[in-house]
Design brief:
The protein has 191 residues and is α+β, with helices and mostly antiparallel strands. It has a domain of 107 residues: Sandwich (Jelly Rolls), CATH 2.60.120. It is built from eight helices and eight strands; from the N terminus they run ααββββββαββααααα. The strands form two sheets. Strands 1-8-3-6 form a four-stranded antiparallel β-sheet. Strands 2-7-4-5 form a four-stranded antiparallel β-sheet. Strand 4 and strand 5 form a beta hairpin. Helix 4 packs across helix 5 and helix 7 crosses helix 8. The longest helix is centred in the last third of the chain and has 27 residues.
Length: 191
């Protein structure tokens, strides 16, 4: 577990051994079973999560009790309800495991301290935050401007190995289409 995370970090920045040890020592390790919640809508998001293995999803439930999937987080992805984590307000989203998932967690206090004390980690997180914002804008644009078939192809490009791991109804939810529409699209698409 530590090796995967350390490889992730060292591929993205230059850290001293002491900084890497500081990052690892602040880490909580949690094994989630399939369908186990990491965060429930209405609770305060107290942790930043890094997926070592498995896959998480972040979703919101509409007034009609329909789940709307906003993000998937497979291996080497970060995930939390950032608004709740930052503000301390109740989360608007739920995070659960789509399969058995190993995550590394940092409390808000540890997270802020690590960013203050390790400039390379702070720079990495700022870079990832900017990339995440760019990806959200692209996803919003894709959702409102592209036909369903092109949204599906964009999903396959963004998550090339995920379509085999995630149930089709969840992919449909992520794309904003019905399961039936996704079935038609998949019939005309060769993988």
């Amino acid at each position: 577990m530590d090796e995967i995370f350390l490889n992730y970090l060292t591929a993205r920045g230059t850290f001293t051994d002491a900084e890497l040890q500081q990052l690892v020592s602040a880490t909580l390790v949690k094994q989630l079973k399939r369908r186990e919640l990491l965060l429930r809508q209405g609770e305060v998001c107290r942790y930043m999560a890094f997926v070592v293995s498995g896959c998480l999803r972040l979703y919101r439930t509409g007034e009609d009790a329909v789940e709307h999937i906003l993000r998937f987080a497979p291996e080497n992805w970060w995930l939390n309800d950032y608004e709740s984590f930052r503000s301390g307000q109740p989360a608007k989203s739920t995070i659960d495991a789509l399969e058995d998932t190993l995550v590394l967690l940092w409390s808000k206090e540890s997270w802020e301290r690590l960013k203050r004390e390790i400039p390379t980690f702070d720079a990495l997180q700022n870079h990832l935050l900017i990339r995440s914002l760019d990806a959200q804008v692209d996803r919003l644009h894709t959702t409102i401007s592209l036909p369903a078939e092109e949204r599906y192809h964009a999903f396959l490009t963004s998550f090339p190995n995920l379509y085999q791991r995630v149930p089709l109804h969840m992919i449909a939810s992520y794309l904003g289409v019905t399961r039936k529409t996704l079935g038609r699209i998949r019939q005309h698409t060769s993988l």
